[in-house]
Amino acid sequence: MPILSGLNNEIIRVGIILPEDEIKEINISWPPGLHLETKVSQIKATQSIDLQVEEDGLSFKNLPEISAQSKLSLSCPDNIEALSAGYGFHINSVVAGRGFHWEKRIEVDLPGKLEISVQDGFLKIINFVDVEAYVACVATSEMGSEAPGDLLAAQTVVARCWSLALAEAKHLSDGYDVCNDDCCQRYQGTTYLTDHSLKAAKNTRGEVLVYENRVIDARYSKNCGGMVEAYDTVWDGEAVPYLIPLWDAPEQKSGYAVDDFEAHYAYDEAYCSSKRFKNVNLAGMLGKVDVSGSYYRWEQVMTKQAILKNLKKYAGLTWKRLDNIRIMERGPSSRIKFLFLLGLDEHDKPAEQMVKSEYGIRRMFSDSFLYSSAFVIKNADSLMQDDQVVLRGLGWGHGVGLCQMGALGMALEGVGYKDILKHYYPGTLLTLLR
Length: 434
Ligand SMILES: [Zn+2]
Ligand SMILES: [Zn+2]
Prior knowledge:
alpha+beta, 2 domains, 5-stranded mixed beta sheet, 434 residues, 5-stranded antiparallel beta sheet, 10 helices
């Protein structure tokens, strides 16, 4: 019986430069030996094109003899054997951290086909790439190149499942399957590929986790905080049988309420606990865009003024004062499901506003994005008088599925990738796609 997945073929379409990036000019270059294919034959004689969006389409600034094109397609081989660090088309200005405070421009090298077009007066570049090549690139973009082999292997299988399941499918209406950023999976092409990560991809080629004959929706996040969260705490819809709450530890223990924040906060035995990374170069093992630190436990201060600003931005409410925050319900890992803000509205009337979902809460309590929605208000007793809200929290990300730092902790202890996957996705089966 064939294994079911959400992606219809072996090619995934990745949005690299999007109209919302508002880019009108770009340089694309490639090394001399690259086996390049394109219908615009003059391009084959060069190693670089400067494209610009003009009234009549894409113009070639460095090759004026070529007439403007509405669409341009460039391709090179993308089978996994062809890949090496820096292989493919080099693009010098791709957005990373889209919409976040750390948003910046990075350089990437892309294998496979580039489809370049104009939409709403801006450039749009979609990368059509073989799924195996894509997951090899994602595993290194999500992890640092010094990450242990079993961590890379686990991340590669998870990235493959996530891509094939295509459960979120946020961008189908825009003509691509996934974007290149944290919104989907971070993909920086072959830029940071290492022999090490390629080996992990080749060794796990075609391996997927399945549940009831379907490729699983393999969610993952940076640091669960000690307990892996349930799918239905974070997203709408039914519970998912393999995305369930679990202690991120060798033993599943019982004995205290799973939604007890202080009990969670006191627990430091988890695979993702900071104490396991005291002598570890985390920067070399985690991705390159993020700030450093494990964020197993954290503290964050935000002014009430800044929260009121977010309340205006995200809920359209103009309040004069924030007086109290009432936390209503938590999920098993102690991530908050919903809370109430209480204060004084623009007419000096007492007001309350519900803030719900992990995403909505993280957005409300930060200028960028709060590490997680698992927190308590440290100054709850004096909140009425204070100008600031002090948050004490745990974990980094939604906490559902594989915990990347926990998987690192396991790999550092010598646990193999198959057992890492079994730990985070209980009840699933590791098998070959074809
Ligand atoms: Zn996306
Ligand atoms: Zn964890």
